[in-house]
Amino acid sequence: MSAFIRKRLVSFVIVLVGVSILSFLLLAFSVSDPAELIARRINVNATAEQIQEVRVAHGLNKSIPEQYINWVRGFFCRRIRHIHLLL
């Protein structure tokens, strides 16, 4: 019985990680640029420098694996710092 439960838990964790990676990649490779959306909410006439500042402030200038780790960390810390990815 415990082997069955262990197998189910391992399967659950694998599916959970797979779904989180897929969700993140769909959000990360969306058509719109999250940094530009945030910058334009703050200032409609945002310059390229302001957009770059937003990109750096939210960690969008980092590699995709680093962004994913930060995204998961923010989810588990209950403070989703990359809320713009959910738009």
UniProtKB/TrEMBL annotation:
One of its GO terms (cellular component) is plasma membrane. Its main location: membrane. It holds the Pfam family BPD_transp_1_N. Keywords: Cell membrane, Membrane, Transport. Residues 1-79 form the ABC transporter type 1 GsiC-like N-terminal domain. The keyword Transport applies. It is a multi-pass membrane protein. It is found in: Cell membrane. InterPro entries: BPD_transp_1_N. This is ABC transporter type 1 GsiC-like N-terminal domain-containing protein. It comes from Diplocloster agilis.
